[in-house]
Amino acid sequence: MEQGTIDTYIDPPEVLYHWSARKLNPIVLLYVAAVFVVFILVAYFVLHSMTAVKALAMAAVASIIPLVPAVISRVEYRLNERVLERRPQTDK
User: Fold this and answer.
1) Separation of alpha carbons 74 and 77, rounded Å
2) With 11 labelled, which of 19, 25, 59, 72 sits at a CA distance of 20 to 30 A?
3) What pLDDT was estimated at residue 7?
4) 70, 27 in Cβ contact below 8 A?
5) What are the two backbone dihedrals, phi and then psi, of residue 9, each rounded to the nearest 5 degrees?
């Protein structure tokens, strides 16, 4: 008879909770966009500078685009008696 480890004698743990979550909440994109809209309105109506409006619009696009993959991707969590596992969600 071959010696086994303790894990061979213990039943595998059952998953207690299984859930998935986004890496970044979508509301963050709205907050970032709202801040840029306020600055664009100030630049247009108070400063009357179309150059500033264009620069702020380009900065807004450059700030929001890198955040989109974090909103789209999800992370899968599984909790059992032993450990909390975190891994990227594979199904689409």
Assistant:
1) 10
2) 19
3) 55
4) no
5) -95, -15
